[in-house]
């Protein structure tokens, strides 16, 4: 059997005129496990969404064995033998149906099939697919009852059943245990033997070097390198992923660090375990971790947006109890959440409504909103943060990501908060806005605020933080001072490694 | 070009349709455009408008209240019995149904906010409970002056003149219900656009999670919306009883549909793109004008449902095509 070759050539893609991919080439062969690496926002997901038909490229083409193919829908991708195993396994499965039915889902949805379901045949066929993969699953069980790892297997089996020639694995190991990961790799080896080309996206470099034949690294929407695993090294890959170090780009503001503002002890809920941390006046503490480490959950727990099962919170030494975000806000803790468009701002409302929201009591008398006071306050915030807007009344949805983020930050500025929580504030904003956001955060620290900065961008934490806490699997596993921390150390602890 | 046309029809469509309908009916019937008939149309839509204001509140917080129709039915018969059976003074006759409406709203918000039943299903259940309650309460009879009672005697109470004035009287030649309606529309418009609470309602409906993370007690805001919805339905019920001078069973049933249609017609008026009370008023006008004109053309009343359904579907189409375009 001739080896299949899949090539993406000169792929370009922009979102509302912000380039996400610039002239990217990517190639994978049948029987190869090919890693696609890059920091968050490097363009891996966009590239894979184009390959799987979820997006279309603005320029460039996709070729299989040197014949150009048009992939304008997920169905077209499947027709050409390209399958994707999503990280969110649940979106692709029907939980109320059995494992066997899910494996053969596409077959059954096919209208050319017979009207009647042949149950016996169904289970036999599903069994066959699993045998090919050397894996067994309880075929009669409902998918809803499976573990996450098993659900992944169902998806892989389903891809194989549809004669997949190329399978994209989008961070499949992130939620898996070591044992489960091992089993997944065995399956991937089987696929490799069957001449299937696997594209493997992961943040865990150890395992990438363990199983991949080749490694492509992306950064800022460009392909940086494409090498055989044998000819490169972990350090080389890390350097390619990170590029210029962050400190060079954004010099840190020097502040004097004062009294402890906020302290939490033994914070525990479903996602976080016994977290202790504190932040002082003028101090920027970065909490870093890979996707799924529990950073967002921790930020929401501190802000009382999520419940905690146990733990204590102290503000300036006084014990507090919060049941609703408003109580945290009233005591001076504010959160700029990760999901800007869903949680940070109200996209359909005007910039002015957004910015005045936490101040609404202050600007209204007997329930009556004083528009003059409102406009005055808002103009000040807009000026202070240099938010670029057509007008105060324009809906927030028309702003760029960076300016939306400034609105999400700006609404807290006049509340006299003492502790700011930032959850991935630079996600999806352009470089210019990024440096603005760092300037704002530096300014806040200078004013004596305590900053908790949650991020998965290690370089950012190195550039901005006085102290860095590393999270893994819901726990804080390491604390490093600004001087001690290096990208390599952070990556090591964040991926569950130990010295 | 196509986009512009769509935008234009979204913004002015409802108003253009109202004007077109006016021109059409006044050309086929000379009586249509007389003061008496216009006053009649406005009086006939006053109850729908009040109920629709309630629905507007629930839609603003991204909810829905199906129970408004049966709340009207319940409050109408309660008002009637308070006078006919119990001979209570005017102020209790007004206060008690409003409290009833508020408690139905509280019950709805308990189901939706605390038990977390989806709004449509929760209020569907409430709708049947309330509807059953009002029939059980009167044993299925309508309430009127001098009605026979279970013990064989005749009810001694009756609708008071001052109460009937609310539904049938005129001030300076303008029907009282019309004055009440216009006042309500103005007050609610000011409430929604110039007060803190109005803004909190819209923000909560716009994005619950963002609102919560901005420090808004979202559940409290939603509760208020449902209570207001119940209160306005109750006011509609009081007005209904005052207008017909009796407590008709099931009187509110057709109002749900008309109120919902009015709100969705109003969604797009002048490009608001969200539930708003001025639009709701125009929506009610459109429906009132259509029904009035068709009655004049001697269409049978049982065919009206077709018209109402069509108006709702058209309004929903405009609304959702617009929302999708925006997304």
TrEMBL record, chain A:
**InterPro entries in UniProt:** AAA+_ATPase, ABC_carbohydrate_import_ATPase, ABC_transporter-like_ATP-bd, ABC_transporter-like_CS, P-loop_NTPase
ABC transporter domain location is 6-245, 256-498
Q: Which SUPFAM superfamilies match?
A: P-loop containing nucleoside triphosphate hydrolases
What Pfam families does UniProt report for this protein, alphabetically? ABC_tran (PF00005)
Presence of the UniProt keyword Protein biosynthesis in the record:
no
Q: Does the keyword Aminoacyl-tRNA synthetase apply?
A: no
* CDD domains named in the record: ABC_Carb_Monos_I, ABC_Carb_Monos_II
Task: Indicate the principal place this protein occupies in or around the cell.
Answer: membrane
* Membrane topology qualifier: Peripheral membrane protein
Q: Where is it located?
A: Cell membrane
**Keywords annotated in UniProt:** ATP-binding, Cell membrane, Membrane, Nucleotide-binding, Repeat, Sugar transport, Translocase, Transport
Q: Name one GO cellular component term.
A: plasma membrane
Picking any one GO molecular function of the record gives: ATP hydrolysis activity
Q: Which PROSITE patterns match?
A: ABC_TRANSPORTER_1, ABC_TRANSPORTER_2
How is this protein named in the record? Answer: Ribose import ATP-binding protein RbsA
UniProtKB/TrEMBL annotation, chain B:
Q: Which UniProt keywords apply?
A: Cell membrane, Membrane, Transmembrane, Transmembrane helix
Major localization listed first in the record, in broad terms: membrane
Q: Which GO terms describe its cellular component?
A: plasma membrane
UniProt xrefs under Pfam families: BPD_transp_2
**Which portions of this protein are annotated as coiled-coil regions?**
none
Which superkingdom? Bacteria
The compartments listed are: Cell membrane
What transmembrane ranges does the database entry give? Answer: 12-29, 41-61, 68-86, 92-113, 120-137, 171-192, 223-245, 251-270, 277-295, 301-323
- Which GO terms of the molecular function aspect are on file? transmembrane transporter activity
Stated membrane topology is: Multi-pass membrane protein
Give the matching CDD domains: TM_PBP1_transp_AraH_like
Q: What is this protein called?
A: Ribose import permease protein RbsC
Tell me which species this is from: Pseudoneobacillus rhizosphaerae
List the top taxonomic levels of the source: Bacteria, Bacillati, Bacillota, Bacilli, Bacillales
**Gene name in the database record:** rbsC
